[in-house]
Amino acid sequence: MAEPIVATREAEQWGWEYRGQEVVVVEQQDPPVPAVPPPSTLATLETKRASAARVSPVLTWATTGVAAATAVVYVAVDPLLALVPAVMAVGLGWLRWGRPEMLRRAAVKEHQRWLADCVTTMAGFERDVQVWQQELSDREQTKALQVSAVRPWVPVGPVTKERVDLYGGTAAGWRAALLAMGSSLMSAGGRLVVLDLTQDAVVEPLRRMAGEYGAPIRSAVVPNETKALNPLTGLSPDEIGVVIAEGLRGAEPEQNESRGVDASLVQQIVECLTDGPVTFTRLHLAFQVLLRQLTPDQRGELTRPEYMKLADLLSESARRTAEARLFRLAAGVQRLSAVTGDEPMDGWDGDEVSLRVFELSPRESELSASLLRHLMFQITMVRIQRGQLSGLGERIVVIAGADAVARPELERFDSICRRNGLRLVLLFAHLRDSAVELLGGGDAVLFMRLGNAKEAEQAATFIGRQHRLVASQFTYSHGTNTSTSTSDSTTRGNSASTSDSVGVQTSDSRQTTFGLLFSRRHRSGSKTSGEQYSSSTTGGTSWSEAISSSESSGSTESTSVGYQRTYEYSMEPTVLQGLSPTAFVMVDPLDPASPRLGDCDPRLGDS
Question: Between vectors from CA 325 to CA 268 and to CA 406, what angle results, nearest 5°?
Answer without folding.
Answer: 95
